[in-house]
Amino acid sequence: MSRVWIFGQDINTDQIVPGRFAPIMLKNEDDLRKYPFVEHRPEFAGDVRPGDIIVAGNNFGCGSSREYAPLALKMVGVGAIIAPLFARIFFRNALNLGIPCFTADLTSQLRDGQQVELVLEDGVIVTEGGERIALPPPPVFLREVWAAGGIVPFFRQHGRFPGEAA
Amino acid sequence: MAQTLSEQILSRAAGRQVRAGEVATVAVDLVMMHDSLSPSIIKIMEQELGVERVWDPERVAVVIDHVAPAATVQTAEKQNEVRRWAQRQGIRHFYDVGRGISHPVLVEEGVAQPGMVIVGSDSHSTAYGCVGAFGSGMGSTDIALAAATGRTWFRIPETVLVRATGRFRPGVSAKDLALRAARELRADGATYAAVEWHGVEFLTVMERMTLATLSIEVGAKAGLVPPVGIPQQVPDWLKVQEGASYSRIIEVNLATLEPQVSAPSVVDNVFDLGDLGRVAVDVVYLGTCTNGHYEDLAAAARILAGKQVAPGVRLMVVPASRDALLRATEDGTLAKLIAAGAALGTPGCGACIGRHMGVLGPGETCLFTGNRNFRGRMGSPEANIYLASAEVAAATALTGFITNPADVM
Ligand code: SF4
After folding, report:
1. What sign has the CA pseudo-torsion B288, B290, B293, B299?
2. What's the CATH fold of domain A2-158?
3. Among residues B371, B12, B409, which one has the least CA distance to residue B178?
4. Cα of A152 from ligand 1 centre, angstroms
5. At A133, phi and psi to the nearest 5?
6. What mean pLDDT is predicted for residues B90-114?
7. N or C: at which end does chain B have fewer Cβ atoms within 10 angstroms?
8. Considering only CB atoms, which chain B residues are within 8 Å of A89?
9. Residue B164 has pLDDT above 90, yes or no
């Protein structure tokens, strides 16, 4: 089961990981796992479990190009992020790191703290009551990157960028 | 068919005609990386991609600007790693502490040119649109791939057009136009799109950079000013084409534009200065790739000349580049600022990301000429950041509360 974490709109990368906690500022890069939402939602880093889902409002991840923002979320095991619109650099970074991002507005359908099951292959969320919420299927060029587990393994396997004819 | 500036540049880089909405692999002309993310970029390139050498050391630029000079032992150590790496790679466009912020520096050095595709490890890489380049910010993995291969992929963006008419009144400038556009477009109004800024040919290249850097704050992939009236050589295939299609058009009459202020803690929370009420400040910070240019220092000096910063207010001046600082030194601009009470920082990013050189404490209010007022951006999450122009910054430094330059000029 995955816990749902609801966030508001315009969540920026300074809220995800403030620049002061960039890996370059830390003694040990692995410490980055302590800092997702450290100021915005201090209980998150301690309570989040692998597979948990972030369900956010519009424009998730706006702001800086810092890849350590999605990297911190990946390090604590965030299983998917669902928002009606993602800021583009964040979206690319998350895609590159292999974090599934779905473009949908579920903030009013799901509650914070709710337990659900995410079936990635089928693109559905199943609630405790058995309700099935279909996630919009991502375009082919995104799916091929996910399937490889991120852009680096994708590039190493195919020797090309997504969307380009094989 | 007529193309937008982004479609023209990306078609050339893709080697075929591309249109908004397509996904294309394109050749990049320049890859920029800075001290803050270079260590992770190098690591991804070497360890994950297994690539030892950058694809072309002439087309990779490395700038030490984010924490310059180093603030801690760790940052000093990491920066030394980056220096050694750049040397091993034979990277000539390496700019060390004090040269300034990557974006103005690459323009001043002539490394960033009209018509190029430039990707940078900094979200404000939209800045290169000031010379009509397609500049876009990316994270470490994308930059590592681009540095290793000389290529990247893009979804070709639609274009949002901001069309300015008329001329600014005294005390109003490019920052006010950019904030006005953010107010209309909102923080996500140009997500996945490019912004073109028309009707601003009378601005200098660095004034155009103010518009180009703020394009990311409405979500844009790139922010271009048509390259006319600039000293750079412009390729003849690059020009605004009649009939190019724009997904949205915003009109701004500069002649009636009031000074704009973005209040905490999102960039699109923009007000006419007159509607803001009385906001007392502790710090006025003049700097960044958005408004730390010579033009900004000069505009502030005109307002502050022969006067004194209000008691209890700290005025930080951090020039965007050494060139800006030199020019301001030579013509007396700097002396006016310092005589008025300004404290001077090393050209670079300064406190823009809250790491050094004037970070804010809890409860402090800052009038900032930068581009982000997110909570915690400049230090304490309990500090308040208001964004405005260099002119508003100078007027505010004089009175101690956010002030319309027209009232003190
Ligand atoms: S001045 Fe600020 S916005 Fe500009 S490059 Fe530096 S950190 Fe980024």
Report:
1. negative
2. Aconitase; domain 4 (3.20.19)
3. B371
4. 27
5. -110, 115
6. 98
7. N
8. 123, 137-139
9. yes
Query: Could you give the dihedral angle defined by the CA atoms of residues B51, B52, B55 and B58, in that order, rounded to the nearest 10 degrees?
Result: 150
Gap between the Cα atoms of B21 and B18, Å rounded: 9
Q: Which tokens belong to B244?
A: 């190019």
pLDDT for the residue A146: 87
A22: nearest CB among B36, B120, B372: B36
The answer, for B10 touching chain A at a CB cutoff of 8 Å, is no
**In chain A, which residue ranges form alpha helices assigned H by DSSP?**
13-16, 44-47, 68-75, 88-97, 140-148, 151-158
pLDDT > 60? residue A42: yes
Which pLDDT score, from 0 to 100, does residue B179 have? 98
Kindly tell me if the per-residue pLDDT of B70 is higher than 60. Answer: yes
Instruction: Quote the pLDDT of residue A165.
Output: 62
Of A160, A11, A165, A161, nearest to A85 (Cα)? A11
What class has domain B261-407?
Answer: alpha beta
Nearest residue in A to B78, CA atom:
A24
Question: Given this model, what pLDDT does residue B307 score?
Answer: 98
Q: Is the peptide bond before B69 cis (omega within 30 degrees of 0)?
A: yes
For residue B120, pLDDT over 70 is answered with yes
Which pLDDT belongs to residue A23?
86
Superfamily of domain B5-252: Aconitase, domain 3 (3.30.499.10)
Give the residue, A166 or A128, on which the prediction is more confident. A128
A61 close to B (CB below 8 A) = no
Q: Is B352 in the pocket of ligand 1 (CB under 6 A)?
A: yes
Reduced DSSP (H G I as helix, E B as strand, rest coil) percent helix, strand, coil of chain A, to 5:
35, 20, 50
A14 at interface of B, judged by CB pairs closer than 8 A = yes
Contact B288 CB / ligand 1 (< 6 Å): yes
Which run of H or E residues covers position B25? strand B23-27
Mean pLDDT of B175-190: 97
| pTM for the whole structure | 0.96
Tokens 């302590």, residue located: A34
Spatial separation of the C-alpha atoms in residues B75 and A109, rounded to whole Å: 44
Per domain, the residue ranges of chain B are 5-252, 261-407
Q: What is the pLDDT of residue B303?
A: 98
Helix, strand, or coil here: A79? Answer: coil
Pairing, β A80-83 against β A53-55: parallel
* pLDDT value at B183 more than 70: yes
Q: How confident is the model at residue A24 (pLDDT cuts 50, 70, 90)?
A: confident
A–B interface: beta-carbon pairs under 8 A? 139
Nearest to B219 among A15, A64, A88 (CB): A88
Give Cβ neighbours of residue A159 (< 8 Å, ≥ 6 apart).
none
B261-407 has the same fold as B5-252: yes
Beta bridge partners of B211: none
Give the pair of three-digit tokens for residue B59. Answer: 């087309």
Domain ranges of chain A: 2-158
User: Over chain B, what is the mean pLDDT?
Assistant: 97
Mean of pLDDT values over A98-114: 96
